[in-house]
Specification:
It is built from 4 helices and 8 strands. By secondary structure, it is an alpha+beta fold. An 8-stranded antiparallel sheet has the order 1-2-3-4-8-7-6-5, with helices on both faces. About 3% of the residues have low confidence.
């Protein structure tokens, strides 16, 4: 009798059945991380919600501001602090339209003053895993003047929602001490 026949360690060969099972497993895994066809809002919120509806949807995570913040046609009365995207801290500013007083935009803002390009890349990768590849990427630098600037953006477009990740550095210098901004903006496309 041959030694290989007596061995406890059998050679593994790929059969049609094994290949089929592996293929089905891969398809099931890819569907589990499928890109959404649409986003009807941000998280548990939906575009057009009133303040009371937002309160019911987000519960105790919602924190009321002492005074509203104004952003052109929007205002913020409530925030959701303590969020993490790709391990980075964010605060959600729930922006209601001034005329309708209904949810129209959610701004996730990095609370620190010095986000780096590596933070942008990590957040972009996390969003891409959730939303698919960005529809558009833009970057702009301006080194012509006395004060250079740097701006980079990634954008996801859905029928109901536009998602824009941006990093802005007014001085294009990571060590300038000048404030930089890293935001993720979820905006209703239906006005």
């Amino acid at each position: 009798m041959r030694a290989s026949a007596l061995s406890r360690h059998k050679r593994h060969t790929l059969t049609r059945r094994g290949f089929g099972l592996a293929l089905l497993g891969a398809l099931a895994a890819s569907r589990a991380h499928a890109v959404p066809a649409d986003l009807a809002g941000w998280g548990d919120t939906r575009w057009g919600m009133t303040g009371d509806e937002i309160g019911r949807a987000l519960g105790t995570r919602l924190k009321r501001l002492t005074a509203p913040l104004r952003y052109n046609e929007y205002f913020v009365r409530e925030t959701v602090p303590g969020l993490r995207v790709a391990g980075r801290p964010f605060i959600a500013l729930l922006q209601l339209h001034q005329r309708s007083e209904r949810l129209a935009q959610v701004l996730l803002r990095y609370p620190g003053d010095f986000p780096m390009l590596s933070d942008f890349v990590a957040v972009r990768e996390a969003l891409a895993a959730e939303l698919g590849a960005p529809a558009e990427r833009r970057a702009e630098t301006d080194y012509r003047g006395d004060i250079p600037s740097f701006w980079i953006e990634a954008e996801w477009i859905f029928p109901s929602t536009l998602v824009v990740l941006s990093l802005v550095d007014q001085n294009a210098d990571p060590f300038s001490g000048q404030r930089k901004t890293l935001t993720v903006r979820y905006t209703s496309r239906r006005r």
